[in-house]
Structure formats: structure tokens, C-alpha cells
Predict the 3D structure of the following.
Amino acid sequence: MTDQHSPTDHRGEFSPAPAVEVTAVSKVFNVGKTDRVDALVDVDLIVKPGEFVSLIGPSGCGKSTLLRLIADLLQPTQGLIRVNGKIAKEARIDQDYGMAFQQSGLFEWRTVSRNIELPLELKCWDKAKRRQRSAEMLDLVKLSDFAEHMPWQLSGGMQQRVAIARALAAHPKLLLMDEPFGALDEMTREHMQAELLRICEETGTTVIFVTHSIPEAVYLADRVVVMSPRPGRITKIVDVALGDHRDDATRLGTSFFDSVREVREALRQIEAAALDEQYGVSDAPAASAPRGIEDR
Amino acid sequence: MYPLAFAIVAGLWEAYKAIGPKRGGDVLGVRLLARTDDRSMPHVWQMFQRLSKPEVRGGQQTVARVVADATWYSFRVALVAFVVGTLLGLALAVVMARFKWAERALMPYLAVSQTVPIIVLAPLLVTLLTYAHKSWGEQRWLAAALLGVFLAFFPVAVSTLRGLQSVQPAQLELMDSYAAGWWKTLFKLRFPSAVPYIAPALRLAGAAAVVGVVVAEISIGLRFGVGRLVLSYGQEATTDPPKLFTAVFGAAVLGLIMALLIVAIDKLMMRNRPAENT
């Protein structure tokens, strides 16, 4: 690991418990069968409170698996995962995190505001409190005029905003996102990225964001975690020095391109290593980004 | 739409009666064309005239009254069959969705159950009910209702199961991330997602309940029902041909009321849903 954060920060003061702490985690699917897959091997990762971390890598590198392990939707074969200082399962039961997927997964039989209320309903909040919170969340994602609309009456980008509002409704400290903008067109996507940063700034939420777009990963994140497949592991962590305030101008700046290049090179090394292993050639063509990576 | 459909059928009936062969006819040597004489095919207006006359010579009640009472009676039995059959179908679907082994164990038997000829099953049911409890056997309508249930539950069980299993994986993960248990997931997610599958199944269940009840009435000779009326008026068909068709009207109206009821339920269930699902 290139960039491990110790429990004390650089000034030597004690920092609060990490938002996410992944320690020596491995995940094997189909243990003891012929189609055994080593999805993740010996992964360590610490995410600080308020940090935005992107996970990027070619298909099959285990980035979605890592996200689901943190969410306690999958159990690690080995290792330990803590969220807000708790065992992952406790954190899930306490709804310490919110989650958003590539498909918005909105319930089509519920109005927009009742979709946002769903996690609160499961926490047994009373109705007035739920209404109030969903109104706040709609305000946050700028969809107040659509509270009583049905999800299928909304555009893809608006649906995804509702999904983010739902994920944040219970005010979790952590937001887990699995390619949430993957199905959106490029213009909507850039708009949504800016919206997400604004929301995170307003709420101070920690985010782990799975993507396979290099510019998206860089634009959003404080750190980009680059992962390689077969077996899935973290090969490099790129610090993105773009500051806390980012806007459209950020996408044109040199430090943005520097970070994009750094991530791209890390991914090319993965590709080269894979080709090396496959064909036994050391100088593999590095002209293009690895498969499954958007180089836009 | 329904009056128009009736007018078309009545029109075709009268048209064929006007041009068809009086004593029936052959097509390529096969006796295929129905007789069109007044005894076999009474005029539509004769059927309606018959409705307003007394049921039996010198009797107090008109045929219309007797047919309406019988239809109402059968409708209530069919409604019981529809409601119980639907609930049974839903319950079976939930059990099969919950336990994979239950689906594997039950499904083949459920499928086979639908191939049993119901006309045989009805008297058997009466015998079984009497055997189980004497007063149950005396309640003849119970056997008819059970037969309706027997036919109605199947489409509901099969479609609901498919609906419960058709949930988006991301939505299931979402419920998991909320630490929602199986029952909460069932009521908040699986059942609502299954509604587009359940709604059309209810139409089939409604029709099946009506068929089951009417056939059972004929088979076990249940008094009061419209099925019985079809049977007994059929026996008078040689002397009083239009009378039989008044009972057929009753059976048609029975099916119609059930269909309208289920359309209303369907509309209620599918409100606020995207149009392509309706």
C-alpha cells in the first residue's frame, strides 16, 4: 500500500475513528468448487470521515465486491471490516450508511417523496417526521416540485437524484455508490457529479464511489483507489490535489490532467502486467486504456 | 362495449337463422350446420318475451325473477370461491417464494391438480364433505364453492410466485442494506412488485371461479343456482325452447358481473403505475 493513513494525523493529534476500516480482507467465491474465484486478496483500506474515495479498475477487479463487503451485503472470507468503528453488520443494522446503485432502484408504486421516506419507514419514524425529512431531502437535491410525482415520470438524472436523496434520508455518515451515474448521458453525468460534490459539502458525508470513468473518479475524489483483477487487489492509491471546491473550470486545469494521467498510467501497468502474464511479453502495447475503462 | 357485443351476437344469431338450412346441413359430408327451426334456434325476441312470462303455467313468479335470483345466488357462491381461491393462491405463492423446497414439492402437484375433470370431482367433494362432517355435506353450496376455489387458486398462485420472484436485484440489495427482514421485504417490496403479475391472474381466477361453481351446480344438482336452472330448463327445451336461453342469459350475466368487478379491482391495483404495465 502506498498511502496508508495512521490513526494519528500529520499534526500528531488523535483523529476520530475512521469512517471505514478494511483490514486484510479477502473474498473467495465458490470456495471448494471448480469455478472458485479469488475476488479480493489481502485488501487494506482506511477512509477518513468526510473523505471522498473513488474505486476504479478493469472489470472483475472486485471494486463492487469491496463496496458490498463494506455494506455487509457480502461476508469477507478473511479479514475484518469496520464502519464508524463498528463491525460492518452492526453498522448495517444501525443504517450507518446509505447506498445508491447504477439503477436508481426506485419503487415505481411509490411517489418520489414516499420513496425517500422508505428507509425512515423501516426505522419506524412517525409520519410527520418522515414528511419533514423527505421535504428537506428534496430541497437538497432540488426536486421539491416533484414530491408527488411517480418515479417513471422523471428523467434518468432526476431519478438518480431521488435515489441519492433516499440514500441520505436517514442522515448516514457514509454513502456507498456503485456506478450511480453509469447509465446517464455525458452532460447529465457531469451535472450530477457537481451536484454530488455540493451535497457532500453541505452534509459532510463520507463517500466511497465505484466507477470505471477515470475523469469521474478524479473529479470527485480526494483519493482514487486503483484496483487490478485476478485476483482483485489494490495496486495504487492516487491523491488528488484539487482542493475542496471544484467546478467546471477544475476539469480544464493542469492538476486535474496530472491526476488523470497518474490514474491512467496505473491502470496501464495493470493491463501490461495482465498481457505479460497472458502472452509472456513484457512491453505490451500501452496505447489505450485497459478494457472496461472509459477514457473520456 | 358490452351492449354492442350483445347486439353483434344477437345479429349473427338472427342472420344465421334467416339464411341457414331449416333441418341442418352437411359440409363436405359432415353434419355440421345447426338446425335453424324455431325449436332449435328461437328468435332472440322470443327469449326476451319468455323472460317476462310466468316460470310455470299459472305460477306467480316470472322467469326473469327466477333467473335473476338464481344468478344472484350463484354469484355469491362464485364470489366466495374467487375470494378464498385468491387468498389461497397468494398464501401458496408466499410459501413457495419463502422456501425453495416448497416450490419444488408443490408446483408439480398444483399443475396436475388442474387436469382433474371437475365434473367428476364435484360429487366426490360432496361425499368427502359429508364424510368429514354431516352438516358440511348438507351445505351443498360448500362443495360448489370449493370447486370454484380449486380452479381459481391456480392462476393466482403461479402468477404471484413469478411476480414475487421478479424483483430487481438492486432493490433487494437496498432492502438488505436497510437490514429489513424477509417479511418486511415481502410487504414493502415483493408484493408491490408482484402487482402487475397478480392483476391479470385475478381475471383468470374470476372466470375460473364462475366456471367451477356453475359446473359444480350442474354436476351435483345444487338447487337455487343458475347452473341447475340451465339443466332443468334444458329438459323443457322440446316444449319451451326459449326458456333454456333465459337461463343462459343468467349465466352470461353472472360472468359479466364478475368480470366488471375484477376490472374495478384491477384498476384500483394498477393506479399510479406506468401505462405499459396495464
